[in-house]
Amino acid sequence: MIRADSSSPLPDHQRIVITGIGLTAPNGNSLREFRDSLLSGRSGVVPYEIRYVGKTLAGLCTFDERRYQSRKDLRRGTRAGSVGIYAAQEAVADAGLDWPNVDPASVGVYLGVTEHGNVETENEIYELKGYDYDTSFWSHHHNPRTVANNPAGEVALNMGITGPHYTIGAACAAGNAGLVQGAQMLRLGDCDVALAGGVSESVRTFGIFASFKSQGALAEHDDPARASRPFDVERNGIVVAEGGCVFVLERLDDARRRGAQVYGELAGYAINTDATDFVLPNPQRQAECVRLALRRAGLVPEQIDIVSTHATGTSSGDTQECVALRSVFGDSGKTFFNNTKSFIGHCMGAAGALELAGNLLAFRDGVCHATINVDTLDPECDVPGLVLNQPRELERVSYVLNNSFGMLGINSVVIIKRI
Questions:
Q1: CATH class, 266-417 region
Q2: pTM: predicted TM-score of the whole model, two decimal places
Q3: In the chain, what's the furthest Cα-to-Cα distance?
């Protein structure tokens, strides 16, 4: 199952590998279904209507909420919790763990989120309006629904996990940050199995739609499937989406001991901060984050086969990231670039984890999925190696680099190595 690799300077108990992946995305409820959608060009963006904002577009998930939860669980919990539970349960099954015999105290849950609690508070206030704002009708479930650790806590409750759990608030860099946190805890010996990734219930809050709309950054298009169009000269904003992706992370020696499948090894990562603006990205800091991840992995840019871009479909965001990419990778022609948001919209806290997962099967099939919906490439987004509209077969894929950036200037980069 796992080939020996003597090139790593780390001992096996410090090498972190991905042995399971569970997810729900607007265009797939399993890794295989998600990957097939990315290779066939199938979008998950659909018409959507939400209070106060009205008709808009969104990326909506269709997973079976009752697969791992009762009706009572669903009434009491949150959508983000349900997304996390579904993805975590699927990841554990995919990893082939003998779950009943895994020590629950040895498992940690580390889930990234962009924001949490907005949906629940908005709903309570909306319902309270019908009772002339009499707070005696306020739900007693509100506090456990809105505490910051909720999504990871719901996973721990559902799965009987007694090890550490918490969420990582890292804006739209959170999916990568969850994976990084899980890897760090494994290396510290804080857990033996880490369930790590990101979740989002953002489509349930009108506030995020209203805010993007007020910024002129909410995507519009007559054809919902073509609304998310990073790098296209006619792009006009973000498609808000929900989703979740959880990775099972283990130390390499533990994975070898049980003969586990391995999707890839964490080769390097970096997180830094622009410290320049609330919203506008800083390409210099983004480039520094990519270079730091490469240095920690002991790699040069030419060794990266696929870069999964963060680009959201906004004018400034896409062009600034492309400035950063050109400064790091130049025009060697050895690295290829794609974008997953063009298929599913922006899954916020889940974006980085989902976008990484969507590219990991390239280690097996050798295909770089495309960025779709690019009719006319914006000249400012012209990066050598950008894969547009049709997948591209590569000779071999050994390294995938995943960019994920967020508001308040947080940048995260993860590099996964074929093993």
A1: alpha beta
A2: 0.96
A3: 68
